[in-house]
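agent: user wants the full assembly modeled, not chains individually. Plan: 1) parse entity lines 2) check alphabet per entity 3) run joint structure prediction 4) return tokens. Steps 1-2 passed, two entities, 966 residues total. Proceeding.
--- entities ---
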Amino acid sequence: MTFYEELKAKGYTRRQFLKFCGIMGAMMGLHQTGVAQIVEALETKERVHVIWEHFQECTCCSESFIRASHPLVGKILLELLSLDYDDLLMAAAGHVAEQTKEASIRQHYGKYILCVEGSIPTGSFGYCTLGGRSAKEIFDEEARGAAAIIAWGNCASSGCVQGARPNPTKARPVHKLISGKPVINVQGCPPIADVMAGVITYYITFGRIPELDAMGRPRMFYGRRIHDTCYRRAFYDAGLFVQSFDDENAKKGYCLYYMGCKGPNTFNSCGIIKWNDCISYPIQSGHPCIGCAEPGYFDQEPFYEHLPSVPGIGIEATADKIGAAATVAALAGVSVHAVVTNIQKRKLIDNNTEYPLKDDQVDGI
Amino acid sequence: MEYKIVVDPVTRIEGHLRMEAVASGGRITDAISTGTMVRGIEIIVKDRDPRDVWAFVMRVCGVCTSMHGLSSVRSVENALGIDIPHNAQMVRNIMLGTLTTRDHLVHFYQLSALDWVDIVSALKADPAEASAIARTISPLSEAYTPWGENSPGYFADVQRKVKRFLEVNPDNNLFSTNRWCWGSKLYKLPPAVNLVGLGHYLQALDFQREMCKIQTIFGGKNPHPNYLVGGMACAVNMQDPNAINMDRLSFVQQKIQEINEFVNRVYLPDAIAVLSFYPEWARIGGGVRNYLSYGDFPMTQMNELDSYLSKRGIIMDRNMNAVEEFDPLALDGLQEFVNNSWYKYSVGKDKGLHPSVGETILDYTGPGEDYDWLGPDKPYSWIKTPRYRGHAMEVGPLARLAVNYAAKDPGMVEIADAALARWRQMADKFNGRDCGLTFDSWFSTPGRMIARAIDASRAGRFMQMAYDSLIANIKAGDERMFNSARWEPSSWPADAKGYSLNEAPRGANAHYCHIHNRKMVNYQMVVPTTWNGSPRDPSGQRSPFEESLIGTPVAGIEQSNPEMTLEIIRTLHSFDPCMACAVHLYDESGTIIHRINIENQ
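--- prediction returned ---
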């Protein structure tokens, strides 16, 4: 049964179905013709089988996934797929759960998608076991039969918190443990729900993985810096900055650059798609971006110091130069760290603002 | 004949739990609970800026997301002597209430309902009958009306949806249609009630997305919203579109109302109704007889315990006539043992250490390759064993009920009495006999689940109280959200220690920190599932998971039937295990990572 047939059976109209395709198309930045491709794929293709494994993780990716917000996406994605195994949501436990997974792998060998949530420890057998077997052994076996691997979140893409120094369990991301298979790094801690939904829909629609950047991330969601899509960008360009949390400038929603915002070197869709049904994103709620979609972000602390003190990161000052740099980054399609590092115009900023804070600036309590 | 049962993985929980059990004569005689995954977060936060640590430890868990972030900023504020503005305290309370209500709702419907509700049977039900039954499941409080979205057409649509889903891939789907023990006599609900449960399962799945949006308003995203040492980052400005203003506050108020409606009209009545069909379980799964709650929802500052809306205390041996005090600093009070964990202590493996002087030395002695049976005779878990003055404690919603009831908190007494009366009345009615439910029935698997629904109702009420207080404060002219007095590290003492005692959705959650020369030199978390899911201590006392399984009947062992698994996970799920929280502190190199030097600066 195709996705469209199921929608019909569920009482959705063709108009609603087309709207869903339109939403997905818009999220993926497609032209009308691309939307037509989604329509065709969802009308004619069989469900994709998915095995979803949890290794060294905190389950925030699954938690984010079930928050997918546009109604059709939220209602249908679990049904659009055939999620054959997910130890968070499935009814069965123990050996029945394992049997279900083994049977699915056998039947759909070479065709299923392996979704991995969490990193994989390589320090010792005992650091992560399921059913008495190590995460590494399970991963190796399931990766062999997968058509593609989706590495959910920062853990599976780059090791996240357990991979931060000194990485006590020798946690490794998926792409370091496998070669010869397509691996999609869906970054973020967690990734935005609709980004997760969009990656899956793209795969089902076009029968291939989305275009990736140099770090294995889908360009359609990670092709822009948060800084370049932030609604507070105008304040940055105008030199209007928050100097202390809850100061007069914070109450006006000025730029959080000096509070340590990592938006200028973080690639994600927070400023565009936003979180939890477009409600807000960290910067909109007054907190600097901590860069959770970037590899090694936990070792780029302290979080509350502005970028020039973070090794390897600098930033330019004027709006037009920033725009030009972003264009270069997008066109060149390179890992953008290289681009931002060689643009150091911090002096300009210092001249235009009253930073640093005065030591005696306190608000009473 | 003695049987050994292994449930690994235990599904529909956060993280990785393995449960081994021994059964003879149709009942479980021994149980072994193992945490099978480690990450090492407490080592990783060493030498970091204390203001950053909340972000690291929040990643301990994405299910009770925000809890460890909140606990962390509170412990750092305690160490540095920071009082936060009233607005920030109220916002944190609202966010805690959001977490608690959503976590409990998801636990009941998505993570534990399928232990009691047979979805395959639901497909055979008459939708009109389901609709009629749903309308008789009325809220406990007259302030609420029965849930209205229960037309026969709605239930027919639910059946159609789920049937289609199961037919597409009958062998290997999320519900393991052809493999799990659907249709077993262990599932006792009539088809129409199963259909009600299934319908509400799907409604809850939709609704939980709405709940978390409150955290997104104040914390920017969910899971893993932002916190801030000294207050909150979300500035209030009633005259600006770019801050917390009337639009944002109205949105929050709307969601708080919706949460209270869903919890009181659907979740709490459903929990009582479903579990009323299983009165025999009211004598199963009680386990350990001591209960610990730290209390939470401060209406002033954290150090003013009287202002907490949920109280702190200990109940020993289910004696509801006395609430004992918890001393967070007594070195012989709260202690962690490692005798059955994969660690050793420099003071000897049989000794316990207070978290402020704790140490963790890795000593992995578990099997080195694929294993079938761990057993209780050698260390068998990544979880340490916490005790209070040598006693095992259960933590969580049941502990909160016991402590607040014994402390005669009027709100708790009222709702617990009403819930028990309803539970008793429905059980007698559904089973056509006097089922003999009493106050002691709380100390059981279904009692724990109903206590969780009560906890959600209370948390919903607390959110409204915090919201009202926030509005009153802003109205009085106070828009402060952050105290910057101790923000700069230059304002800190050279050495500072702090702790915070909090109530996570799953129970008592303690964070201890030690800041030295502006860096975090030590961080220790004693979290709810550590209390509940730990291995046995040096005197052989079992912790709640293990103890509560003793005596549980198990069917179908001879045929290795999934039914035996079902009976084990019913009780385990009643605790809502959170394994990533329980296991977070382990080091590979074998070095001491939790020794605190008591320095006199």
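agent: reporting back. Chain A touches chain B through 110 residues (CB under 8 Å). The beta strands of chain A are 49-54, 82-86, 112-117, 120-121, 129-130, 133-134, 146-152, 171-172, 183-186.
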